[in-house]
Records
---
Amino acid sequence: MIVTVTPQPLSGKIPAIASKSYAHRLLIAAALSESPAHVSCRTRSEDIDATCRVLRGLGARVTQGNAGDADIIPIDRNHSPRLPEVDCGESGTTLRYLIPVAAALGCGAKFICRGRLPSRPVEPLAGELKRHGIRLTTLPGEGFVVEGKLAPGAYSLPGNVSSQFIGGLLYALAILDGTSTLAITEGFESEPYVRMTLEVLEAAGVEIREEKRPEGLPVWTVIGRGKLHAGPELVVEGDWSNAAFWLAAGALAGDEGKSVEVTGIRRNSLQGDRAVAEILARFGAQILQTESAAGAAPGSLRGIEIDAAQIPDLVPILAVVAGAASGTTRFTNAGRLRIKESDRLKSTSALLTLLGVPHEEEPAGLVVHGLGSARAFRGGDIDGFGDHRIVMAAAVAAASGGAPVRISGAEAFRKSYPKFLEDFAELGGLCSAE
Ligand SMILES: O=C(O)C1=C[C@@H](OP(=O)(O)O)[C@@H](O)[C@H](O)C1
Ligand SMILES: C=C(OP(=O)(O)O)C(=O)O
């Protein structure tokens, strides 16, 4: 799909879509519980569908409504399929959470991966599972086969590759019979994602104790009792990571009186990406927040320092804001962006180049020399790099920019936000798709 966006700053009010991260976690918790559950979720996306599909393959009965809600009858371990073939699509969270879960269930699985997912890392999770008796075979360009039954024990993982290894292993340890420990050996990035997982597991009755090692890194003791108790009714809250695109659009809206408000996002959410409100305010945007909504309006934007270690998914859209600010914005600790749906430092750099924003791409960072106004953005043709967050960042940049932008491979937005173009139009955005 090619989407052409004509400049027209966005303005208005839009409800947030459901949090993709919470949807994955609650669906998995329901499938591993002792009794059926209804998951209220107002969004269906390719990634959420992938988790539902893999859970079905592992033996859960998952019925999804068109709007996103799901009814789940949990996996019956006495009738688990042996080595099912399951399709993760391009969802890293689905793959990295459900590899250890399949190992804990003992059914194993052949995980099929699409797009860039086969080459996104599963190490060091794979090595740690192997150390505990699991056979994990890589099918180059295709996926992974997991066989064997995980046992309780002492596990450790570095925290600076992907938090999804840690979160997935926590689910696995919670459904074993016995006590395990999981220690973080170095770094701890994307920590908010692990905090969300701990919240969901604890709400599902899992006893988890956290201690700090002398270096300040956590070690968790997880009391595995075979099953979770997620309860009959689970609600997925609004998504800050995707709300960030609309809030950035509000900050870039330029014209007097324009602003964007996103409703249904909790101020006290554990989602790390709620930091977008504070970061836009630091840039100089006008931010208004209530307990359950956030709004952004233009201000005089200035370059700032942004540590991306805990908020990797915000970088592409914040780089666009940096491009419109005056002065230099420096993104640090952003190395993990290279292992997302695209090499996001490279693809964000390509977007900035198209927009005419001077910048330097560093091994683990980005330095952006802003033009002082989004209206100074140039237009032209850009590839979406198969990456939803690049496509959405390009569309928001173009809406506030000075010339039309043609985005090819734009269908990538369906990974997290299938209604993106409708909501873009709802906020007054001008775009056409061919
Ligand atoms: O667990 C999650 O829901 C996610 C964790 C993050 O990945 P990393 O932990 O690999 O940084 C984030 O980038 C991804 O979009 C969603
Ligand atoms: C990186 C992302 O997701 P995942 O790792 O689940 O593929 C994302 O949504 O930006």
---
Amino acid sequence: MTGQHAPIHLRDVTLAYGDHRVLDGLSLSIAAGSVTALLGGNGAGKSTTLSVLLGFARAEGGEVAVCGIDPAADPDGVRRRIAYLPENVALYEHLTAVENADYLLALSGQPQDRAAITEALTAAGLQERAWDQRLGGFSKGMRQKVAIAVALLREVPVLLLDEPTSGLDPRATADFNALLAQVRTRGTAVLMVTHDLLSAADVADRIGFLDGGRLTDEVVANGPDRFDLRALHARFQVGDDRRAA
Ligand SMILES: Nc1ncnc2c1ncn2[C@@H]1O[C@H](COP(=O)(O)OP(=O)(O)OP(=O)(O)O)[C@@H](O)[C@H]1O
């Protein structure tokens, strides 16, 4: 345990697959009660960053800590402290929303009663009539809400999100953003990987731009020093064109 770091801490992290350098001196620190969005083109290393924090991929160099714990040394320890929403949420189709939450919470060693589960489903925006329906007929947004409710109930200090608003309609995206604001007020450190600059601008305190496995830019997305969205969008588009050329 290193203790003195922010809940999410990466310093000079490097990682390569064969001779392909995927993370190249990445440094990122996310405090409790703040949301950082990580943007970048395809293959920039965003999901790999999450994998390193979760202990699924191992950094070759640099420092990685989740709540002061090195994921490579104690992957179970970090995963107990992280709620992770992958891009395609894996839930059980033949179970209802409440049953899914009940089962997943029991699996994570943090069982909750029905009242707590339905309260979290409500907070996540899932309507009461869907609570006891099987997931087979659920839309992507509804599934996302079940997964978010489970993440909320786990009350962990770190939340990692991989493209949480991809495939959501504007209403569901707005609901999701409102929910994330609540999560932040509970003191959770949130890292959100996304391609959605507008959504990032709505919910994040900071936006980091990843290119070639390192942070090339970082902007404040909240408060008086907030960036100019149009200027940033133009800069981001130029970056994408340059990469595609
Ligand atoms: N297990 C692996 N083995 C080999 N190469 C990998 C592996 N995982 C990722 N990569 C490569 O690492 C690079 C970064 O991948 P990563 O998934 O982190 O990018 P990303 O920024 O999340 O991209 P996207 O926006 O497309 O999801 C890519 O070139 C990818 O092909």
